[in-house]
Structure formats: C-alpha cells, structure tokens
Specification:
single chain, about 350 residues, alpha/beta, TIM Barrel, 14 helices, about 45% helix, globular, binds iron/sulfur cluster
Length: about 350
C-alpha cells in the first residue's frame, strides 16, 4: 500500500531494490555520541513509530553494533543498510563479516560502497580484485540483498548510476546543496535507481529542521530521506514534520534565501572538487569539522589526534589558489582554513561542541 498525503508519498519502492520503504529513514551517524542505553531506546522508538529503513556504516564506530542490538528481535520487519570504505575485494570481505556480526544478522538488505567520490576510487572498486568483485560474490551468496553506492560528487554519481551496477544511490541534498536535483536525481528516477538522501540539514549546519526536511521531501525524485538523530525528541520532531503539511510557506522561502545568503560562501558541501591539493591538505575535512562533523559525532581521542595532524597540514598551505579555482561554490578556502583551525583549537581544548 502506498501512503500519500497532500501529494507527497510516505511510503515508496526504493528503485530496483523493490524494497517498500517508509520515506523517512534512520541516519546512524549521530548515535555514536550518545550512550548505548539511550541509543537502543532511540532506535526502538523509531521502530515503534513505524520506521523501516536503518542506515549505518562500518566507519561509524559503535553505530552498527547498537542498531543490531536494538533490532535483533524484529530483524525481519526492517531493512538494514550499511557501507564500507574498502576499495578492494579482500577489504570488503573483512568488513562485511564484521558488519554482519555487529548487526546480528546473516544478510544486509542494502550494502553500499561508501563515498565513491572521485575517478580514482571509481576505477579502484571496478579493477580486478576490487570491491565490486566481493560485493557481487556476496550478493550471489545471499549475504547482500541489494548493491548500492554513496557519493558526495553529483557529477561522478551520474556515471555510477549509468553503470547499471547499483540499485540505489545515497547522495547529500539540501537547500544549500541543490545540484543533485538538476540532473542526477531525475536520472535515477529514469533508470529506476533508488535515491537515499543524506544530510538534509546540511550535516547539522541548518537550524530550522522543519523547513530543511520539507525542502527535500518536496522533490518527487527523492525516495528516502535519512536525517541523523541523537534523541527521541529529534525523532519525534522529524516524524511530526513527515506526517504533517509539507507545503513551504512564504516565510520559509525567505528563511531558505537568508541561509543561502549567510552560509552560501562558507558552507562546504564535501564534494571534493577542490582536490587534489599539492600539499595534501584535507580541505573538506577541515571546513566541515566544526559545524558539521563535530555536531554530529563529537570529540574522541582519535578525532583529536586526526585533527592535530590536519592542523599541521593546513600550516603547509602555499596559497597556490588551485583549490579555490576548482570550488564550484567559490568558497574562500585560503581564508577559511586558518579560521577553522583557530576556532577548532579552542573547542578542542575544552572538548566543546560548536
Ligand atoms: S591554496 Fe593551499 S589548500 Fe588550496 S590547493 Fe593550494 S596548497 Fe592546497
Ligand atoms: S571547499 Fe568547495 S570544492 Fe571543496 S569540498 Fe568544500 S564545497 Fe566542495
């Protein structure tokens, strides 16, 4: 049964996967920041509300394990999606086994190659001995039910989708990152590739969840939207928006325009068009760390170490400007990088969240 209120579907089929999904799903990144007990309550609450699509990743530390714990006894009623950054077959085999154990299941509904964002990664995964070999075999073995991919690069994603190798695609899309709506999402519809939208709130940078969520749901090319959540209150808020009137008022349109003006030249979309940097500076990592990554994931000892290494890299910037000439959003990267470092150092010292 398809549930449709005021012209917007609340239940749909995820492209060629054929999975019948509620269009509001669970994004498993932020639960890394809350206790195990609280996470299980949150996930269980989502299940009791009727959410049936749960997304996590091998790279989200404890996320898989906690989702597995929370949903073990209702496994057959939900769809579990996870992903791996591994680019080789050997790497995929190792991570897939860990994911299956963590999720307490013998199959993954949607298994995604995680963030295939540049040509080199795309070639690596298709090369002999590459990740695709393992996912195809795991599909044959029944350990993976559907093969999918995630990317931050809408241009490369067009190639991924056209390859015919993937049944669904996950991509960031929000009112500050509207590019996927131009060609990519309609192409997915045309080719019957399911669309899973991540970062509807700009990875935590937007304050008005209501408007941001409605914006992506209003696009008929989106199948599932998976905002990350870290409290029952956030789940309830999103659920109420999802069930409510999705029309966007004049006042909300103004808010979108305000955010575009205020954040447009500071907000890094993580597309990595600015790379390669001759100094190997992790530009998008630095620019997204404060308002996006830390808000979702918080501090940890390993994050502090990673950040210190990134700070040292930023100091090697030779201001060649290559990154700025490639950034489609014209971000003043050379100015923003040291500003991010200065601000992050203060937060790091006190382990505060921006
Ligand atoms: S300006 Fe700095 S960050 Fe940008 S490409 Fe050159 S060295 Fe890298
Ligand atoms: S700096 Fe620009 S090009 Fe680089 S990741 Fe951010 S938005 Fe994309």
């Amino acid at each position: 049964m398809y549930v449709c209120f005021m012209g917007i579907l609340r239940e749909t089929v995820l492209g060629r996967t054929g999975l019948k999904v509620r269009t509001l799903g669970f994004g498993g990144i932020p639960i890394q920041r809350v206790s195990e007990e609280e996470t299980i309550k949150i996930v269980r609450h989502c299940y009791e509300l009727g959410m049936n699509y749960y997304d996590t990743a091998r790279g989200y530390t404890v996320s898989e394990e906690r989702i597995g714990q929370a949903l073990e006894d209702v496994r057959e009623n939900v769809y579990l999606a996870t992903k791996s950054h591994q680019r080789t077959a050997e790497g995929i085999w190792k991570e897939l086994e860990v994911s299956l154990g963590n999720l307490r299941t013998d199959y993954i509904d949607v298994y995604q190659l995680h963030n295939v964002t540049n040509q080199q990664q795309w070639e690596e995964v298709r090369a002999p001995g590459g990740a695709m070999e393992a996912v195809n075999q795991a599909f044959e073995d029944g350990k993976i039910k559907h093969i999918s991919v995630t990317s931050h690069n809408p241009d490369l994603a067009i190639e991924l989708v056209k390859s015919g190798l993937f049944e669904s695609l996950m991509i960031p899309y929000n009112y500050l990152t509207p590019k996927p709506a131009e060609k990519l999402l309609p192409l997915c519809k045309e080719l019957n590739v399911g669309t899973i939208i991540m970062k509807p709130f700009g990875g935590g940078a937007f304050s008005n969840a209501n408007t941001a969520l409605k914006y992506v749901f209003n696009d008929p090319s989106t199948d599932i939207v998976i905002p990350g959540v870290m409290s029952i209150e956030e789940v309830d808020e999103n659920w109420a928006i999802w069930l409510g009137d999705m029309s966007i008022s004049e006042e909300e349109k103004e808010l979108i325009e305000f955010d575009r003006r205020e954040l447009g030249d500071k907000f890094c979309r993580g597309c990595n068009y600015c790379q390669p940097c001759p100094q190997s500076i992790p530009i998008s990592y630095m620019l997204r760390a404060e308002k996006q990554m830390l808000r979702r994931m918080g501090w940890s000892d390993s994050r502090v170490e990673g950040m210190k290494k990134a700070f040292a890299k930023v100091e090697t910037c030779i201001e060649c400007g290559e990154c700025e000439s490639r950034c489609p959003y014209e971000l003043p990267i050379i100015k923003l990088l040291p500003e991010s470092v200065a601000s992050l150092k203060v937060h790091m010292e006190n382990r505060t969240i921006p």
